[in-house]
Amino acid sequence: MNNRFRIPGLLAERLVEHGLSLPSLLRLAGLPPGFFQQEKIHATTSELFALWRSIGELSTDPAIGLKLGSEPRFERYQPTAIAAVCSRNFGDSLQRVARYKQLTCPEEIRVVIDGPEASVDFTYLQAEESEPDVLVDLVLAWILSIGHRGTDGQIAPVRLELTRPLHQRELLESHFGCRVRFKAPRNAIVFRTSDLSRPFLTHNADLLEAIGAQLENELQQRDAGSDVSEQVKRTLKRSLAGKRPTLQDVAQELGMSPRTLQRRLTDAEATFQRLVEDTRRELAHHYLTRSTIELNETAFLLGYEDSNSFFRAFQEWEGTTPGEWRARHRTGMVFR
Predict the structure, then answer these.
(1) Distance (Å, whole) CA 156 – CA 310
(2) For residue 165, what are the CA distances in angstroms to 180, 287, 333, 335?
(3) What does each C-alpha distance from 268 to 226, 227, 265 come to in angstroms?
(4) Half-sphere exposure at residue 142, Cβ-oriented, CA atoms within 13 angstroms
(5) CB 120 within 8 Å of CB 110
(6) Buried-exposed string 317-335: b where 16+ CB fall within 10 A, e elsewhere
(7) What confidence tier does 223 reach under pLDDT thresholds 50, 70, 90?
(8) Collapsing DSSP states into helix, strand and coil, what is residue 67?
(9) Suppose 245 and one of 124, 249, 265, 268 were both cysteines; which one would form an S-S bond, judging by CB atoms 3.0 to 4.6 Å apart?
């Protein structure tokens, strides 16, 4: 996982098209004047949030995030988006987005299936504050735009969940075509599980093979520089919510047999059980520093069957309860 966000080179052009002054924007965000002139533009999570918060403050258009997330011009798509649109179906598309997003930023895209519903949400792993509303609008609109383009508008969300207070309901419900739940514990877009198998009319096997091969090669190069424990933990972080992945599940995701994965873990003096617990502990700290996520929601996101199981595990890790730990780490937490 990269520790910095890769900013698309076309972003500056698109912001100007939407009437924003780049010098004013960069001053407000506290970024250097030559930020967009770099050959490769990267930003920390805090810099990314400052940029998008400033976009929301400077723009007079309340729908700017939605518009930027719904790019109609295919030639402006980034490789990950092209691979997503060329996928076999919506579920395949979401899996590719979640997998290839690792190449560009410290961000996890989680697809959680809960009976008849499948939700998609974004987790900023190094965030110390809540993500700007305009950025949330952009990423959720981006997911919907991929589904719309692939199915010629045949996919419609069940609902949108937003942590923010009630604001711009009519605008949001008009764009997403569904009801919006405000003051929710997460920012997510929810679809019908049956939509995951909806075929993409834009499926292009040849283009997908060409782009996918390059992206997979980048992932392999990245993984070559990390040990198997890091690879397993990255995979677990994408798949813990609502379930506890098995060694077989992780091996399949990593493209190896369970026996090979077990052998490599043994060689690295690691155990799958310990990596599961380490991953849960790291994610627990992340979720507990976010004031909008309830404790029972945290237990679900970590793959525990019930809150009591999570409370017992956390007590063993930290010697205190999740609620007490959260209270001691309130400094710097952002409340909505």
Answers:
(1) 34
(2) 11, 20, 17, 11
(3) 12, 8, 5
(4) 25
(5) yes
(6) ebeeebeebbeeeeeeeee
(7) low
(8) helix
(9) 249
Per DSSP, helices labelled H in 59-185 are 64-68, 79-85, 90-100, 133-151, 169-176
Which tokens is 41 given? 């533009």
Of the candidates 168, 114, 99, the residue with the CA atom closest to the CA atom of residue 136: 168
Closest alpha carbon to 292 in 202, 140, 181, 139: 181
- Distance between CA atoms of residues 302 and 307, nearest Å: 10
> What is the CB neighbour count within 10 angstroms for residue 177?
13
∠ CA 34-36-37, rounded to 5°: 60
User: Average pLDDT, whole number, for the chain?
Assistant: 87
Q: Report the distance separating Cα 96 and Cα 288, nearest Å.
A: 28
Q: Dump pLDDT digits (tens) for 291-317.
A: 567 888 888 888 888 889 999 999 999
If residue 279 lies in a helix (H) or strand (E), which one and from where to where? helix 272-288
Q: What are phi and psi of 118, to 5 degrees?
A: -130, 120
Domain boundary assignment for the chain:
61-197, 226-336
| Residue 269: Cβ-neighbour burial (10 angstroms; 0-12, 13-18, 19+) | exposed
Between 212 and 273, where is the model more confident? 273
Cα→Cα distances 254→250, 281, 282, Å: 6, 22, 21
Q: Which fold has domain 226-336?
A: Arc Repressor Mutant, subunit A (1.10.10)
Question: Token pair for residue 135?
Answer: 């950025």
* Token output for 197: 């198998």
